[in-house]
UniProtKB/TrEMBL annotation:
Record's keyword annotation contains Heme: no
Keywords: 4Fe-4S, Electron transport, Iron, Iron-sulfur, Membrane, Metal-binding, Transmembrane, Transmembrane helix, Transport
Transmembrane segments: 51-67, 94-115, 169-187, 202-221, 343-362
InterPro entries tied to this protein: 4Fe4S_Fe-S-bd, 4Fe4S_Fe_S_CS, Cyt_c_oxidase_cbb3_FixG, Electron_Trans/Redox, FixG_C, Ig-like_fold
Keyword Iron-sulfur: yes
Taxonomic lineage from the root: Bacteria, Pseudomonadati, Pseudomonadota, Gammaproteobacteria, Alteromonadales
Domain spans labelled 4Fe-4S ferredoxin-type: 266-294
Gene3D superfamilies registered for this protein in UniProt: 3.30.70.20, Immunoglobulins
Protein's recorded name: Cytochrome c oxidase accessory protein CcoG
PANTHER family on file: FERREDOXIN-TYPE PROTEIN NAPH (PTHR30176)
Length: 475
């Protein structure tokens, strides 16, 4: 090819089709269009599958792990307490749960700023379940081309049994998913036994059916629609991205101009880049995008197109990495900066929240006391001439065992305590205890005196003291 000739001229002579990128494709993601994902093998596919099976196994096994006389993780909504192994979170401690969600959010921000949407590609439940459904789809209906032909064929016994088997497997997986999810809120043994013996509460049946069809619809029918049109994370991820964020990127300088050729042909002489325009990167993409069109919010960073392209490059005898995990700066031959203010900010916020959560979890009180004054009368004078105030104590035993508590007061001398001074409370129970305190008026130096209601206990060999401030009113 002479210096004056162009790849187009050479292509006309050799009858080769050269693809010119189209920057403006209209309506690429019509929800009514089906995406047939092609199977692919490679490093990132293997990593994704192993992470997917690990997270799926963790989700399924966790409700069955025992912890004392209960399951290790149990969100007991009926009694308003969340058990997470040895930690019990009560409604009064929901700030811990809020801190946990905040840690998850900042962890997601930190990872996204550094590694892009790897959460979406490797650990998001929508992605994990979708690839599991696709695996069953391939087992019953065959590879991508066979599935396309099967959908185009008229109904027959062959098509009927394959479709029936596929959807049956989807429903069974969805049912298992739903029952496992419900088992986080209702003891797992009760869920499985009661549901299959028809002894479960109607609310349990409702949620099992609801989550079964939600899973079946999301992973079986909606798939890329969830990622492209419904997931809010795909929309606000741009706020965390910068030109040093790792993305799945196509090296256009190396790949263009793209076009088919034989393995033995000298594509440089033909004026072609390394991309042979096989479209495998598009066929293996679960959201149906063409990564060669540049960075797109629909990309979930799953790396399937990397494995497909590397396989093609290896077959052609070219260097791998035409599509790779890279950054915009690297693609533009600009120096990368890993440590940057945004990443440091997210890292510091994540570290602080983790430390706060660990400290709050370690210092969580095993007892809670609320003091309610009698508001109908500030005080009354007894027959003995004493000033008496009435209080209602609410004592919550937040431990897993029954406990005994000793009650007292400080802030006043010579007081009379009317009511029990020692009480026993079962695990997780709230005791409402009315008491009254009477004092000789001569002991009162002012009309309103600050006092502390005190509860002492010995819990697991440790002395625990809880104080709650209140007021004592006199003449």
């Amino acid at each position: 090819m002479t210096q004056e000739s162009t790849p187009k001229d050479y292509a006309k002579q050799k009858r080769i089709k050269i693809h010119q990128p189209d920057a403006s494709k209209a309506d690429r993601f019509n929800p009514s269009n089906s995406i047939y994902v092609r199977a692919v093998t490679g490093l990132w596919t293997t990593v994704r599958r192993r992470i997917g099976w690990a997270t799926m196994s963790f989700f399924l096994i966790l409700p069955w792990l025992p912890w004392g006389d209960r399951q290790a993780v149990w969100f007991n909504l009926a009694e308003q307490k969340f058990h997470i192994f040895g930690l019990t979170i009560w409604p009064q401690d929901l700030t811990l749960l809020a801190a946990l969600f905040t840690i998850a959010a900042f962890g997601l921000f930190f990872v996204t700023t550094y590694l892009g949407r790897v959460w979406c590609g490797y650990t998001c439940p929508q992605t994990v379940w979708t690839f599991i459904f696709i695996w069953f789809e391939e087992k019953f209906e065959g590879a991508r081309n066979k599935r396309i032909k099967l959908d185009q064929m008229p109904w027959s016994f062959n098509k009927l049994w394959r479709k029936t088997a596929k959807h049956t497997s989807w429903i069974l997986i969805s049912l298992l998913t739903a029952m496992t999810f419900v088992s986080y809120f209702v003891p797992s043994r009760e869920v499985y036994i009661d549901v299959f013996t028809l002894n479960a509460d109607l609310s349990i049946y409702f949620w099992v059916v609801f989550f079964t069809f939600a899973t079946y619809g999301n992973a079986g029918w909606m798939r890329e629609i969830m990622c492209i049109h419904m997931c809010p994370y795909a929309r606000f991820q741009a706020a965390m991205f910068d030109k040093n964020t790792y993305i799945v990127g196509y090296d256009s300088k190396r790949g263009e101009t793209r076009g088919p050729r034989s393995r033995k042909a000298d594509h440089k002489e033909m004026g072609l880049g390394d991309c042979i325009d096989c479209d495998l990167c598009v066929q293996v993409c679960p959201t149906g995008i063409d990564i060669r069109n540049g960075l797109q919010y629909e990309c979930i960073n799953c790396g399937a197109c990397i494995d497909a392209c590397d396989t093609t490059m290896e077959r052609m005898g070219y260097d791998k990495g035409l599509i790779s995990y890279t950054t915009e700066n690297k693609l533009e031959d600009v120096k990368e900066t890993i440590v940057r203010p945004k990443l440091i900010g997210y890292g510091v916020a994540l570290t602080v929240m983790i430390l706060v959560f660990v400290y709050a979890s370690a210092t969580i009180a095993p007892l809670r006391m609320d003091v309610i004054r009698d508001r109908n009368a500030l005080y009354r004078i007894t027959n003995d001439g004493l000033v008496e105030n009435t209080y209602t104590l609410k004592l919550l035993n937040k431990t897993e065992q029954a406990q005994e508590y000793q009650l007292s007061m400080d802030g006043l001398e010579g007081y009379e305590w009317n009511g029990p001074k020692q009480v026993a409370i079962k695990a997780g129970e709230v005791l409402t205890l009315p008491i009254s305190i009477a004092v000789d008026p001569g002991q009162l130096e002012r009309t309103v005196t600050k006092i502390n209601l005190v509860v002492d206990a010995n819990i697991e060999g440790k002395a625990v003291t809880i104080k709650q401030e209140s007021r004592f009113f006199g003449e």
